[in-house]
Amino acid sequence: MNKSRVLPNHEQTVGDTGRILVALISTSDQKLRGGLECLPYTGFMTFRWKGMSTLPGRKNSMTNYVRFTLVAFLVTCILWSPVALTGWFADNLIDPQDGMMDASDYLASARGFLPVPIIITEPAVGYGAGLAVAYFHKPKEIDREQHPHVGPPSISVAFGAKTENGTYLYGGGHSGVWKDDHIRYLGAIAKVNINMAFYPEGLIGDIVGKDGVKFNIDGGFLMQELKFRVKESNWWLGGGYVYVNADNTFKLDLDLPVDLPDPAFNFTLGALDIFVEYDGTNSTFTPTKGLKGKLKYQNFDDTWGSDFNYDLYSGELFKYIPFGDYSSLGLRLEAETVNGDVPFFGYPFVDLRGIPALRYQGQDVVIGEAEYLWGITPRWSVVFFGGVGHTTPVKELEGESRTVAAGGLGFRYRLARKLGLQSGIDIARGPEDTSFYITVGSAW
Questions:
Q1: C-alpha to C-alpha distance for 406 and 395, rounded to whole angstroms
Q2: What is the largest CA-CA distance in the chain?
Q3: Burial degree of 49 (CB within 10 A; 0-12, 13-18, 19+)
Q4: Is 10 helix (H, G, I), strand (E, B) or coil?
Q5: What does the pLDDT read at residue 263?
Q6: For the chain, does the N or the C end have fewer beta carbons within 10 angstroms?
Q7: How many beta carbons lie within 10 A of that of residue 302, not counting itself?
C-alpha cells in the first residue's frame, strides 16, 4: 500500500526530519568512573532529537536516524544545607585555579545514578520540561599507551518530557562503550506523541497559508546503532536500524457546515543504514580545535518493515579553528537528499537556530553556518553565529528553490574547564521570528 499519497495528487506534502528534543546525558572523559553520591543538586539537559528517522524534529531527515547526542552536566547546584555549601560545594564545584564554579572534578568522579532536569526551547513544539535519570556504569581502566583515544563512559538512561503544545515522549536508552573504546553501541526505545506543522509549497502552500498544516504523530520508536573504531585511529565504521509504528493525524482547521473527522492513517517505517565517521576534535562537548565529519546512507524498504521505500543520503563536516587560548571559530557544512517514495515527514529541512524545525523543506537541503566564540575571560565568552540554508523543490510539488538565513548572538560559561564543556543561552533571529535556546556543549 502506497501510504505516501496521504493527500490527493500533488497535495502530498513535504516532510520533516530533525532535531526534535533528544539529547540524553553523557560525560565524555576517560577519567569518569563509577558511583554517584546522593547529594542535592540541580542540572540541566537539552533534549533534542537529531534526525529521528521517523518522527519530526530538528536536524537531518525524519527519514534519517535517531542519534542520541549524549550531553549533560550540572549547571547549578542548589544545596540547601549550610554545611554542604561550605564543605561539599567548595570541594567539588569550585576550581582552585581561579576560585570559580567548575564541575570538572564532580563529573570526572560521577558514578551511579544522576537525575538531570530537561529544558526544551524548540520553537516548533514550544517550551517544555522533563526529567532524565542516568546510570553511569563503572568504566574499565584503559592502557593509555596502547589506547591513546578518550571515550565516554557507558550510560543507561530513562527519560520523559512534555512541551506546551502537548508534545510528549518517554522511554529509555543505553550508550555502551566496549573493547577499550573500539566498539560503541547506542540503543533507545520510546513512546512519542508529537504536535507540529509542516509548510508545503505550490498550490497547497497557497491554500494553507503561512500557518502550514498541523499534524500529530503518535506511536513507538526503536533505534539500534553499532560502530567500530578503525584500529587506534579517529575513524569509525558503523551501521544501524530504525523502526517506527505510529498513527498520523492531520489537524485541519476548516470552516465547514458539518463536522468531519481529521484525516488519519497508520504507518510503519523501517530502515537500515551504514556510515563512516571521523572525529579529530579536542572535546566531545564544546570543540575548539580539530575536524569532524560523517557520511551516511539510509535505506527505507518493506524488507526492513517500512511502508515507504526510499533512500536518504547525508553528509556533515565541522571544522574548529582556535584563536588564542579562549576564542575559536567553528564552521559547519551539511547536506541531505532523498529519493523515492518519501512520506510527507521524510524530506530534509533547514536546521538553523532561529528557524523552527520543518519550516523550510526540500528534496535537497544544503546548510552552511559559522560560529565565533570570543573569549572575554577564561570563563566567559560571547558567541556570534549566522548561517544560510538552501532547499530545492520537492518533485511532486510545484514549488521553488528557497534560500534563507538566520543568525544571532549569545554567551557561554566554561562550566567544566578540564572537560572543555561550555554552556549558555543563544538568541537567534530567522525570517519569521526570534527564538532563544539553552545550549549545553556544542550548538551543533
A1: 26
A2: 76
A3: buried
A4: helix
A5: 87
A6: N
A7: 12
On whether the pTM is more than 0.85, the answer is no
The span from the CA of 372 to the CA of 151, in Å, is 27
Q: CATH assignment of 9-252+261-440, given 2.40.160.50, 3.40.630.30, 3.40.1380.10, 3.40.50.300?
A: 2.40.160.50
Measured CA to CA, the distance from residue 233 to residue 152 in angstroms comes to 16
- Single-letter amino acid code for the residue at 366: V
- Judge whether 335 and 300 are in contact, CB under 8 Å: no
**Cα of 250 vs its chain's centroid, Å:** 25
| 161-185 pLDDT per residue, tens | 999 999 999 999 999 999 888 999 9
Short-list 290, 315, 343, CA closest to 56: 343
Burial bucket for residue 148 (CB in 10 Å: 0-12, 13-18, 19+): exposed
Residue 221 has pLDDT above 60, yes or no: yes
The three grid cell numbers given for residue 138, joined into one nine-digit string: 563503572
User: What is the per-residue DSSP string for 253-319?
Assistant: ----SS--PPPEEEEEEEEEEEEEEEE--S-SSS--SEEEEEEEEEEE-GGGT-SS-EEEEEEEEEE
Residue 377 per-residue DSSP state = S
CA distances to 24, 121, 127, 357 from 434, rounded to whole Å, are 26, 12, 14, 14
3-state secondary structure of 418: helix
Determine the pLDDT at residue 284: 82
Give the contacts of 321 (CB within 8 A, at least 6 positions apart): 289, 328, 329, 330, 331
In 3D space, the residue among 432, 433, 7, 2 whose CA is nearest the CA of residue 215 turns out to be 7
| pLDDT, tens only, 191-205 | 999 999 988 877 777
Q: Are 385 and 426 in contact (CB under 8 A)?
A: yes
The three cell numbers locating residue 332: 559547519
How many CB atoms within 10 Å of residue 8? 7
- Rounded Cα gap, residues 246 and 361, in angstroms: 22
User: 155: part of which helix (H) or strand (E)?
Assistant: strand 155-163
Give the residue among 214, 273, 283 at the shortest CA–CA distance from 423: 283
Under 8 Å between Cβ of 14 and 57: no
- Cα separation, 219 vs 307, whole angstroms: 15
Domain boundaries defined on the chain: 9-252+261-440
